[in-house]
């Protein structure tokens, strides 16, 4: 598998941001679970499609308690 180092850095930074707003042990589950705030898409799928800004907005709303984790 050939991974673009720039995309890997963006993903690691995103995971770190997830850890800042939810329990570290829950991040991998959250990334792989369909989310009602994302029209039941999985965050990991949206990340791979390049919708990183949409995920950052969701993390912001989760952090200020305006959105749930699921």
Describe this structure in words.
The chain has 70 residues and is an all-alpha fold. The protein has one domain (5-63). It contains four helices and no strands. Helix 1 (5-21) packs parallel to helix 4. The N and C termini lie far apart (31 Å).
Features:
mainly alpha
Write the layout of secondary structure elements.
Elements: H1 5-21, H2 27-32, H3 43-48, H4 52-63
In short:
The chain is mainly alpha-helical and 70 residues long. Helices cover 59% and strands 0% of the residues.
- Percent of residues in helices comes to 55-70%
Q: Structural class of the secondary structure composition?
A: mainly alpha
Specify the number of helices: 4
Largest sheet: none
């Amino acid at each position: 598998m050939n991974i673009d180092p720039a995309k890997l850095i963006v993903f690691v930074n995103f995971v770190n941001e997830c850890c800042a707003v939810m329990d570290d042990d829950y991040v991998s589950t959250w990334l792989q679970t369909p989310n009602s705030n994302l029209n039941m898409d999985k965050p990991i799928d949206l990340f791979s499609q390049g919708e990183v800004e949409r995920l950052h907005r969701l993390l912001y709303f989760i952090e200020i308690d305006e959105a749930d984790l699921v």
